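Researcher: We plan to redesign the surface later, but first we want a full-length starting point. Tokens attached.
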């Protein structure tokens, strides 16, 4: 059976806001250059998609990749790093021992409780029971806070690559917290033959750096 024209040329994508702004949208010009006939609708939302009731063909989700009745393919693994503004880094003579970070102004992500403790523990450092600092909501606010220059925050390395390359941010430590979870391209099994989806999948994996 031939696909409907809308299935060939249209794709509705749900994606987490920070993934959209920090990774996907800056790269979309490459997708349109290669696929000018496809109309891509990108909806940035923190809500998880229910493919049975929501009008989406595909989603990019953070997790372990196990969602019922879907095909999920890993884009990249979580890689959490401590980043800060270069000015703060230079105030400390250009280096931070992980133990010293407990004495620095830290940004805490309210949607990832305990991430600083997990990050420090994975580096072999016994953190205090509580870490002081400022709590913000979501990764986008963490990025905004550390870009202002006065605090250190934990972010996914994939979201700050351009800032590190341009010198807008620096790593406060070389330690990276990795895990089994990450960002996945996921879609219902029933839509796997959709031409626009196949084109998008081929393109997005061509944009992912090998880990």
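Model: Full-length starting sequence:
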């Amino acid at each position: 059976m031939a696909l409907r024209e809308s299935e060939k040329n249209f794709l509705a994508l749900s994606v987490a806001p920070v993934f959209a702004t920090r990774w996907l949208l800056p790269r979309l010009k490459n997708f349109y250059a290669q696929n000018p006939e496809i109309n891509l609708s990108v909806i940035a939302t923190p809500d998880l998609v229910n493919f049975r009731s929501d009008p989406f063909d595909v989603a990019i989700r953070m997790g372990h990749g196990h969602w019922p009745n879907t095909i999920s393919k890993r884009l990249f693994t979580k890689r959490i790093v401590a980043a800060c503004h270069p000015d703060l880094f230079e105030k400390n003579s250009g280096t931070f021992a992980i133990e010293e970070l407990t004495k620095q102004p830290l940004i805490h992500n309210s949607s990832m409780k305990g991430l600083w403790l997990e990050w420090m523990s994975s580096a072999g450092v016994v953190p205090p029971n509580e870490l002081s600092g400022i709590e913000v909501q979501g990764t986008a606010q963490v990025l905004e806070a550390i870009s202002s220059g006065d605090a250190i925050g934990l972010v996914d390395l994939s979201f700050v690559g351009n800032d590190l390359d341009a010198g807008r941010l620096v790593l406060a430590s070389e330690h990276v917290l990795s895990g089994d979870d990450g960002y996945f391209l996921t879609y219902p099994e029933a839509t796997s033959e959709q031409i626009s989806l196949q084109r998008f999948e081929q393109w997005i994996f061509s944009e992912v750096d090998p880990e």
